[in-house]
Amino acid sequence: MRSLLLWMARNTWLRRNLPRLWFARRAVRRFMPGEDAGSALAAGVQFQIEGIGQLYTRLGENLTRIDEADEVAAHYRGVLDEIRERHLDGEISVKLTQLGFDLDVERTFQHASSLAAQAAESGKTFWIDMEGSDYTESTIAFYERMKASQPNVGICLQAYLRRTAADIQRLLPLMPEIRLVKGAYAEPATIAYRSRHDVDSNYVALCVSMLEAVRNGGTVRIGLGTHDVRIIEQVAEHATALGLPRTSFEVQMLYGIRMDQQRRLAGAGYVVRDLIAYGEAWYPWYMRRLAERPANVLFALRQIVG
Ligand SMILES: Cc1cc2nc3c(=O)[nH]c(=O)nc-3n(C[C@H](O)[C@H](O)[C@H](O)COP(=O)(O)OP(=O)(O)OC[C@H]3O[C@@H](n4cnc5c(N)ncnc54)[C@H](O)[C@@H]3O)c2cc1C
Q1: I want to staple 40 with a disulfide (CB 3.0 to 4.6 A). Which of 129, 142, 215, 278 is the partner?
Q2: Domain locations along the chain
Q3: pLDDT of residue 230
Q4: Is 179 an active-site residue?
């Protein structure tokens, strides 16, 4: 089921046609407050009241025309303005291919740098999402290049990749901001752990390596990008054992998933941030959410008939 859904996520015919269907638009509502930035920001205001920070991401990836990247960058400039004007504890998280990475790396760099500079004016971080493994090395190299002039940049790393332990060691001297996720793409066993047990064990081990770096005087902002509360609790126990407070890391979850836990953790003194996705280009992203939990397919079907 996971492979089928991930194949559907990549299929260009389905990507073009399925989102036109009314029932698909209805089903996706569970994972996003709306297709426009206004809906996302309105949801963010509610999170703010509950003490939950936000990450905003406009869905879209693998652009085919570079002028689309200019439009995407202009869009995010507007979102950053709104975040500042509304005094939101909000940051933006962007896919490099949404800024034209496949087409023009220098233009992508200019856009990313200017967005990071604007975010810095309000003391915020500009986050870079991680895409499939064809992009891992180039995204990390891009991050290193950005960090040389822009301290307020974060990157997502994936615990299912065997290389990530080395990538964390590589980035630690840069005082990085790292969101660790399990990983959402279909990757071969040669480069990725495939069993849940192996991915989860690696996830915890990678968190411990970052916490140890903090305990040893290093600077790393750690974001746990997971809904796996069991893992979050294990990491919290490791932090305590190392003499670090629970605020030594933050929990980042997706809009619409485990909202009860997001509120509970925020109430228990954890730093929690909700990633609010929005936009018209939701199809591949939504299919990856379905692939993560086959029960979501049943949920989607119930929405269609109900
Ligand atoms: C803030 C954030 C940013 C992310 N950014 C990236 C990125 O840049 N690149 C990337 O490859 N991946 C990214 N991901 C996705 C990530 O890689 C995983 O695919 C996703 O988070 C599911 O894994 P999990 O850690 O929640 O653990 P799982 O083991 O999949 O899930 C743990 C539990 O959480 C709940 N849960 C998880 N997913 C769902 C769902 N879709 N619907 C309902 N319940 C669910 C279930 O109760 C499940 O038992 C991001 C995730 C988050 C939270």
Answers
A1: 278
A2: 32-281
A3: 98
A4: yes
